[in-house]
Write a structure and sequence with these properties.
By secondary structure, the chain is mainly alpha-helical. It contains 17 helices and two strands. A hairpin with a 5-residue loop joins strand 1 and strand 2. Helix 2 crosses helix 7 and helix 2 crosses helix 16.
């Protein structure tokens, strides 16, 4: 049994990571995964490994300086805050706004107020604004009525990163169709790429989403369903997508699972009226992932993955293996897959987690991190 509790391990990690900025890397802007990875590792039952992992993580890549606040944002004045959405140079202003809001109201009240304002830009930082917010929410929920300042500040930073990297994709998604998620994924036309996907290709495709065949139509293909069932369809289908594309750079597609798994952590704290708009934007993001990062269906919807993963290790071992591997995406992906498997036992979840262990380079304390281009298309 771990000697540390989940909350003790989490707060210790947040204190150790408190001085880091929102992003990291030289020449690329990669999201700070430290708080997310530490929280997921603690949830995997690896509380005693969290402090050592944080040290490895900090050594692996230099982080940018925390952003300084410059001009106050007024949450009551839309003309004050709306122009700052998507302005990364205002990240410090967003953080100060959310720190102030969380000092004046319960964190759920702040979350409910800002969620509808932020969900149109769900793609922010390749969904890391959403995911960081969700990991912070889970920590606060576990703290019940005794959240620490560190935990409240982490929620402020998750929301601030989401706001500062706010990215609205073209088109308006609506769950008004008659297709299952699997049928919608299968029907989406994939666009071939001469020479295959190269660095920068995905960015070009994302910039051209509105012109790609099938994109706008696909936004209305899925049938409306209960939030819990639709989230399971999303995560299981994207575990399948991940398994079916060993040729794709192994990090971006994990977010097709971790983003809806993150939404599942937050929806219980939101009014039902916000559930469907959130699921609509999630499907839009998953459509963008498919069009940006794949050029065909490859082995989706098959069991070709059994050649790579004939027999995943026991479920009880996957968390320890993720901790030992160390890459933050592997840790978050493993935790999300195991959590989703507990709700709907599907062999593709543990198989996808094990495939990620094999495909993504290990965290290298000597100066590299698994997937230097992990968060950049």
């Amino acid at each position: 049994m771990p000697s540390l509790s989940y909350s003790d391990a989490l707060n210790d990690a947040l204190e150790r990571l408190d001085d880091l900025g929102y992003e990291r890397g030289q020449g690329v802007d990669l999201a700070n995964h430290g708080p997310m990875g530490a929280e997921a590792l603690a949830r995997l039952g690896q509380q005693d490994e969290v402090a050592a992992w944080v040290r490895r993580y900090r050594r692996a890549m230099e982080h940018h300086e925390p952003p300084a606040a410059r001009f106050p944002l007024d949450p009551a004045d839309e003309s004050s805050w709306r122009p700052a959405l998507g302005a990364f140079d205002r990240a410090g202003d967003w953080e100060r706004l959310f720190v102030r809001e969380l000092a004046e109201a319960h964190w759920r009240e702040v979350l409910i107020r800002w969620w509808p304002r932020l969900i149109p830009g769900l793609f922010a930082g390749l969904t890391h604004g959403l995911i960081r917010t969700a990991h912070a929410v889970r920590g606060l929920h576990a703290a019940a009525d005794r959240p620490t300042r560190l935990q409240l500040d982490e929620l402020a930073r998750g929301l601030a990163y989401w706001a500062a990297r706010h990215t609205v994709l073209p088109g308006r998604p609506r769950l008004r169709g008659h297709r299952s998620l699997s049928a919608a994924v299968a029907a989406l036309p994939r666009v071939p790429q001469d020479g295959g996907l190269r660095p920068g290709t995905a960015r070009h495709r994302l910039d051209a989403l509105a012109e790609l065949p099938g994109y706008h139509e696909a936004l209305e293909w899925p049938a409306p369903d209960g939030a819990a069932a639709l989230l399971s369809e999303m995560t299981s289908q994207f575990a399948d997508v991940y398994l079916g594309h060993p040729e794709v750079y192994p990090v971006p597609l994990v977010h097709g699972v971790t983003a809806p798994a993150a939404v599942r952590l937050v929806l219980p704290h939101l009014p039902p009226a916000l559930h469907e708009p959130t699921l609509e934007r999630l499907w839009q993001v998953q459509t963008a992932f498919l069009l940006a990062f794949t050029v065909d269906r490859r082995d989706e919807g098959t069991e070709a993955w059994r050649g790579e993963v004939p027999e995943p290790p026991p479920m009880s071992e996957l968390g320890a293996r993720a901790a030992e591997h160390g890459d933050e995406h592997v840790i978050k992906f493993t935790e999300a897959c195991l959590r989703e498997y507990a709700l709907r036992p599907d062999p593709r979840y543990p198989a996808a987690a094990f495939a990620a262990l094999r495909r993504i380079p290990r965290l290298d304390a000597g100066g590299g991190v698994g997937g230097v281009r992990a968060d950049t298309p």
